[in-house]
Amino acid sequence: MRVALFVPCYVDQINPEVGVSVVRVLRRLGVDVTYPEGQTCCGQPAFNSGFFDEARSVGRRFLDVFERERFDYIVCPSGSCTTMVSHYYPFIFKDLPDERERSETLGQRVREFSDFLVNVMGVKDLGARLEGRAVFHTGCHQRRELGVLEEPRELLASVDELELVGWENEELCCGFGGTFAVKMPDVSTAMADEKIKALQKSGADTLISGDSSCLMHLKGRLRRTGHDTRVLHLAQVLDSGKAG
Amino acid sequence: MSDRAEFLGSIRHRTQAGRYRPTNAPDVAWTRKGEPRESEPIDDPPARFIEELEALGGHGRCVGSLDEARECVLELAREREAKLLVRWDVEELDELGVDGPLGEAGVEVAVWRDLADFREVAEKAEIGLSTAEWAIAETGSLVLEHGPGKGRTVTLLPPTYVAVVPVERILRTVPEAIEKYAGGVLPANVCFHTGPSRSGDIEMSLFIGMHGPGDVHVVLVG
Amino acid sequence: METEKPARRRETEDRRNEGIASGVEGFNERARRAVNDQQLHDSIELFTHKSVAGRNAVLNALPEAPELRERAYRIKQETMANLDRYLEQMADAVEARGGNVFFATDGEDAVRYIGDLAREKGAKVITKSKSMATEEIELNRRLEEDYSDLGLEIVETDLGEWIAQLAGDTPSHIVGPILHMNRKRITEVLSRTAGEELPPDVEALGSFARRRLREKFVTADIGITGANFGVAETGTVATITNEGNARLVTSVPPVHVVVMGIEKLVPRFTDLSVFVRLLARSGTGQKLTVYTNFITGPRGEGELDGAEEFHLILMDNGRSKLLGTEFEEALYCIRCGACLNVCPVYRQTGGHAYGSTYSGPIGAVITPLLKGQGEAKDLPHASSLCGACWEACPVGIPLHDLLLKLRNQQVEEGLAGKAQEIAFKGFESTMKRPVLYRISSRAGRLAQKPLKKDRPLPGPLGAWTGSRDLPPLAEKSFRELWKEGI
Question: What's the pLDDT at C83?
Answer without folding.
Answer: 96
